[in-house]
Task: inverse folding
């Protein structure tokens, strides 16, 4: 082989090595970019998980008392029935005042913890808050308006614990 052929062979070998090195660099850069993208996605997923877990924990804490409130609502109902019954008689006015005081204290404690009664009479019927048990004609209220309640409904913060049982107006003269 001549010297010129040797030089040409060396140049070709160097060119092949340089091309192979460039190819390897491009391959490594692509792998690095892919690994970087995976790391960013994983980091974003972890942050979303943290936020979701914090929201769920906050909701769990906020509504942890739901079973207790549900168990207390019949007590509130019975206290109100006792007050209503005692008001129909003149006997035991002292007892009546005591029961009223206990009922108002219980209601204040429920309000303090975010439990409030649902508005009924005179409000538009809302199936998310009211349970219609009957319809009745009414000259006082337009159709679709709650005319009376048979059981008070309650909400804890923004969640309905027990819907109010109500009568709904069909309008004047309708049946």
Result:
């Amino acid at each position: 082989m001549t010297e010129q052929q040797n030089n040409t062979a060396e140049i070709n070998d160097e060119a092949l090595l340089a091309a192979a090195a460039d190819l390897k660099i491009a391959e490594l850069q692509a792998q690095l970019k892919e690994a970087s993208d995976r790391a960013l996605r994983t980091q974003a997923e972890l942050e979303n998980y943290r936020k979701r877990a914090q929201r769920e924990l906050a909701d769990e804490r906020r509504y942890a008392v739901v079973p207790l409130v549900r168990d207390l609502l019949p007590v509130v109902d019975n206290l109100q029935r006792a007050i209503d019954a005692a008001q129909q008689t003149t006997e035991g006015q002292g007892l009546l005042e005591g029961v009223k005081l206990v009922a108002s204290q219980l209601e204040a404690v429920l309000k303090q913890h975010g439990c409030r009664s649902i508005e009924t009479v005179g409000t538009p019927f809302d199936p998310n808050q009211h349970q219609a048990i009957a319809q009745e004609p009414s000259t006082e209220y337009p159709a679709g308006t709650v005319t009376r309640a048979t059981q008070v409904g309650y909400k804890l913060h923004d969640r309905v614990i027990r819907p109010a049982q109500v009568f709904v107006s069909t309008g004047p003269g309708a049946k």
In short: The helical segments are 3-62, 66-87, 93-112.
